[in-house]
Amino acid sequence: MKTYQFPDGFLWGGATAANQFEGGWNEGGKGWSVSDCARSHPDVDVTNYSAHNEITSKDIQEAMDHPEDLVHYPKRHGSDFYHHWKEDIALMAEMGFKVFRLSIAWSRIYPNGDDETPNEEGLKFYDQIFDECHKYGIEPLVTISHYEPPLNLVLKYNCWYDRKTIGFFENYVRTISKRYKDKVTYWLTFNEVDSMIRHPYTTGGLVRDRFEGKNFEEVIFQSMHHQFVASALATKILHEDNPSCKVGCMLTKLTYYPYSCRPEDVLEAQQRMRAIYCYSDTQVFGEYPAYLLARFKNHGLNIVMEPEDLRIMKEYPVDFISFSYYMSSCVAKNTEGLATTAGNTITAVKNPYLKASDWGWQTDPTGLRISLVDLYDRYRKPLFIVENGLGEKEELVEDGNGSYTVNDDAHIEYYRDHFKQMYDAINEDGVELMGYTSWACIDLVSESTKQMSKRYGFIYVDCDDYGNGTFSRYRKKSFWWYKHVIETNGACLGEE
After folding, report:
1. DSSP state for residue 251 in the 8-state scheme
2. How many helices, marked H, and strands, marked E, lie in the chain?
3. Where are the beta strands (DSSP E) in 262-411?
4. Less Cβ around it within 10 Å: N or C end of the chain?
């Protein structure tokens, strides 16, 4: 029997994002963010990503005209962490968390993004969060920008397309770095930095109809360039304020397999993987890979760069690579006649060897090991899995002790199988893995479909897709299972 014992100091925990979890969207001096205008469409096909994530200027205006609407804009309430933070962190401590990944809402610190002074009430909110984490020995892992640029930057500057946003972001980073340098050791600059190519509004604040007459692909990569420079400057600032801190990039680990051994399918899979790696390649190596520069040239993309940009990017690369992994996908050069299925912001060819979730995402634990090996071989830097989980429909039932629970055996099976693959990557493949934070440790609003009913957490939140409920918290069956995994540092996996 294999003994599953993870390395000493392995960081077990869970992950959330302010725009999906925090709530309190108009409290404490917080300004509008792009996520406050993200409307839910629960009756729309989950594979129709444009319907769920494409935002127009008209959509933004409609959202701003209805600030009281929490039904159609569920990110405004999230899981109401803003009012439940003490209870939630205590539950994480009860599970034994070593690390809690969360994000700072930029518009809670600088409500308009271009403000001259920060919002002190917002800064104090995160002070108390970090202090509460440290009370229980939990390390915060903080994402600086996670799908919520201040809306004012969109309306006034076209957000990341305008170079001025680098300066606004730099000001924001200087503020939080100075404030929290003694409270936060682990930082991520941009969540899934590659996602701007798939949903440019949430990541870059880019609204297609505001760029009529322009090549929108060029707009996206120009904005991406500005984020690369901003990320390097953030790494510089954070290291200057706290030389012992660690700064990571974060990418969407979309793992593609060729549908067949036809050379054309193998090449298609390779090209798809390059289209993901180009972003982390840039942040890890500090320079644009030749194949991305070739894309700029072949597509006629004119990316404007200042003389110092490439030097800054080269001098301040990231310390580690973090990533999300939920599933793998198949690709083929010719998809005619092939079944397709939904995935993490993509639709891909269905893999006949894998089972799918209620939302069509095909789970693949072995794909996590493949991803870890690929990333570590490529970068030779520490890795951190900061998102991994399964969205499921769930039912709250009586637990026999006067309370309620969820018998989420599917979650337990999912995590168990993925943890075993993580262990093999560490011990058999030599991968340096810092830690693991599940997505999400507490139920929250799904990014892909804006639903609460797509439940990921170890903790159930009493709220439906329309904001109805008490927001009370309930421990699921997986809560106790994960607690045992953490307290044995994975050794209990060998007992199953």
Report:
1. E
2. 16, 16
3. 320-324, 328-331, 340-342, 347-349, 383-387, 397-398, 404-405
4. N
Q: To which residue do tokens 């180009």 refer?
A: 278
Q: Give the model's pLDDT for residue 62.
A: 97
Q: What is the pLDDT of residue 293?
A: 96
> Which residue in the block uniquely carries the two structure tokens 């990541």?
203
Q: What is the pLDDT of residues 180-226, one digit of tens each?
A: 999 999 999 999 999 999 899 999 999 999 999 999 999 999 999 99
Backbone angles phi, psi at 313, to 5 degrees: -60, -40
pLDDT band of residue 2 (cuts 50, 70, 90) is confident
Separation of CA 185 from chain center? 19
What whole-number distance in Å separates Cα of residue 257 and Cα of residue 268?
Answer: 9
Q: What is the pLDDT of residues 309-346, one digit of tens each?
A: 999 999 999 999 999 999 998 999 988 888 887 766 66
Catalytic residue positions?
Answer: 192, 387
pLDDT for res 52: 53
Do the bridges between strand 11-15 and strand 433-439 make them parallel or antiparallel, or are there none, so unpaired? parallel
The C-alpha atoms of residue 144 and residue 402 are separated, in whole angstroms, by 41
11-495 topology per CATH: TIM Barrel (3.20.20)
Going from the C-alpha of 29 to that of each of 25, 124, 152, the distances in angstroms are 9, 11, 14
Asked if 21 and 79 count as a contact pair (C-beta separation under 8 A), the reply is yes
Long-range Cβ pairs for the range 52-55 (8 Å, 24+): 52/448, 52/449, 52/450, 53/198, 53/199, 53/201, 53/202, 53/345, 53/448, 54/199, 54/201, 54/208, 55/201, 55/207
Q: What would the two tokens of residue 458 be?
A: 């170890």
Full-model pTM: 0.95
432-471 burial by CB neighbour count: b if 16+ within 10 A, else e?
ebbbbbbbbbbbbbbbbbbbbbbbbbbbbbebebebeeeb
Angstrom distance (rounded) from CA 168 to CA 103: 18
At 66, the pLDDT band (50, 70, 90 cuts) reads: very high
pLDDT digits (tens, 9 = 90+) for 102-121: 999 999 999 999 999 999 99
Rounded Cα distance between 76 and 156, Å, is 22
Q: Which of 43, 47, 40 is nearest to 343 (CA)?
A: 47
How many Cα atoms sit within 13 Å of 312 on the Cβ side?
Answer: 19
344 and 326 in contact (C-beta within 8 Å)? Answer: yes
What pLDDT score was predicted for residue 44? 61
Closest CA to 334 of 313, 345, 349, 318: 349
CA separation for the pair 41, 114 (Å, rounded)? 31
Q: Share the mean pLDDT of the chain.
A: 94
For residues 324 and 447, is the Cβ–Cβ distance under 8 A? no
